[in-house]
Specification:
28% helix, 7-stranded parallel β-sheet, NAD(P)-bd_dom_sf, alpha/beta, 17% strand, 318 residues
Length: 318
Amino acid sequence: MKKVLFTYKFEDGKMEEKISLLENLGYEVYFENEATFQYKSYMREIEALMCYSPFESLDIDDFPSLKWIQLTSMGFEQIPVDKVLERRIIVTNNRGGYSIPMGEWVVLNILELIKNRKKAYENQSNKRWFMDFSVGEIYSKKISFIGTGDIAKESVKRLSGFGTQILGVNTNGRSIEGFDKCFSIDKLDYVLSISDVVVICLPHTKKTEHIFNKERLEKMKKDAYLINVSRGAVVSEEDLVEHLDEGNFKGVALDVFEEEPLSKKSRLWDYHRVVITSHNSWISEMIPERRWNLFYENLKRYINKEELLNVVEIKKGY
């Protein structure tokens, strides 16, 4: 029997059923709480670790049999990268597991910004009857996704009936189903200059950190809309605040930030045309089911010595 450790429990009332399924695959199943994690002797024989981030209290040197880490997240910055690379531990993430609700969040915020819904909510709270002639429509708008991975793809599916022009930017300009046209990353400035809405879906790597800086923000239309649903560090918040102060952008929607939680002192809270959510775009009632389906499939593949899904290329950063 191979030993697998989960650092969270199944929350759907099917704990015994799921443990039985894993045991039938050939696993001995253990559970610990990430928040109160303490080393126990059985952990020396753990081969597979299903977790988010127990690494502050967990030293993987105490897990000499560990061969595979399956993360509940898409990002993997929480793992001890050097030790994982040194020991050639396989890391898989939850890529795609959150893309549907995140795609819905993107479409929601495009509509909310262009329809000026924030003002409508304020009018309702103040019982103020006000016909707002500033609202627009997304029909015929150029909506560009910087990064054409799963989040962008799910967003594009949900925009397909709106009559928009969908552009994408990826490493080499390869065509992606659902996009009207894709460009290579060296055409980023051009794409920004023609876009009505820019949606950032980039991973955080050394190359993408602060890729949206003052110089790049200035390439965008003055009345454009900016949405970031990827990682906070790809946008320089200092430069974004300065850009907003200069009267640029009709609307901005941010779900991720350079430091989280976002400080109450941040200027970003103060702009009427900025919508802030608390890294909440990925959440839905379907998350536990999708997570279980991925984990079960990968556990089945692992024990059958088959290729795992969502293997992370650590040196590439995604």
